[in-house]
Structures are given as structure tokens and as C-alpha cells.
Amino acid sequence: xxxxxxxxxxxxxxxxxxxxxxxxxxxxxxxxxxxxxxxxxxxxxxxxxxxxxxxxxxxxxxxxxxxxxxxxxxxxxxxxxxxxxxxxxxxxxxxxxxxxxxxxxxxxxxxxxxxxxxxxxxxxxxxxxxxxxxxxxxxxxxxxxxxxxxxxxxxxxxxxxxxxxxxxxxxxxxxxxxxxxxxxxxxxxxxxxxxxxxxxxxxxxxxxxxxxxxxxxxxxxxxxxxxxxxxxx
Length: 233
What we know:
Structural class: mainly alpha
Number of domains: 1
Mean pLDDT: 84
Radius of gyration: 19 Å
């Protein structure tokens, strides 16, 4: 009985910690998902082991974002979480084809869009600026980046010859090149080593760049509004 009580207390403590620091945990999970490959020169190991594991981490730490939502909303999110964890886990055992990568990309676009909407709803709530709000704001930017990456990846597999300069030697190299490409687009650096080569990807790239700039402008407005409200009370 005591061990059961202790286990329940531990689980409750972990759940409370995830809820209290949900945006900090989500931010860490997003950063490791996007950039952990900088520490891993072996792309085969990254694709087979690290990528499925970091998707599990990302799925776990996104759960807290939906703690206050309806049961239907949470059920949808949980289904999407299972899908985005199960698909890369399956890819560790079965060689991925273009159709599988297209399906994976579409699932990820939906998954990250749902979380991005929830984060943006949090940013719009009337409250003071604090560490939680700042973490959520940064999460929103990385979620926009994740959505753009998997949108571009879906287009890469759906539209032949849609990009120039992408390393096509393996699906991890394609993914990492698109992480780089979308990061360059959102930050407006524009090196030009990877470029869209089809009207669909050209327009999608333009939309991603405009959306990124719009997010930055809206975010600055939200933060200024909250700061002004806090100092006029």
C-alpha cells in the first residue's frame, strides 16, 4: 500500500512539474529535435535511433500544452502524438519510401500546427510578461519552423524536382537540408545554396517567409501590449 501511495505521489509530482514548466520542457524538446544532429556525424545512426527517440521526447513534452483543453481536443492531440511517434519508430525497422515520407510529413504538419495554435492562444491570454510567456513565445517560433520543415518535406516528396541543392543521398540528409533551408527562410538570410525549383515550392517558401515575419511583428505587439498593461495598473 505504501509503495502504491509513493508511486502515485511521484507520478503526481512529475505531472505537476510538466504542467508548471510545460513551455520550458517543450522548448528544450523542440531544440533537440531540430538541432541535435549537429552533434551526430553518423546520419545512419541519427535516422535509425536518435530521430525516433527525439520524437518520443517531443510527444511527451507536448502533452502539458493540452492540460486545460476539452476531452475531444486532448483525444485528437493524443491520436496525433501516437502517429508521429509510431511512424518514425516504424521507419527504424522498415526502409522508408517516398509515400511513407509524404504521409509522415503530412502528419507532422498537422501535429505541429495544432500545438502552434495552442501556444498562440496562450500568448493572447491577458497576463503579465514572465518566463513562462517568453518560453511560449520562443516555442511558437520553433513550432512555426517545424511546420514549415514538414510542409516543405511533404512538397519535396509530392512534387518531383521541387528543390535545387538538396542532398538526396538519404532521407535524413533531405530532412536536415530542409531544416537548414527553412531556418534560412525564416531568418531572411538567404544564402541561395538551396532554392525552390517549382512554382508550388516557390509560393510555399514565400508564404513561410511572410508568416515568419508576421509572427515576429504580432509577437512584438503582444509583448508591448502586455508590458504596457502591466505598467499602467
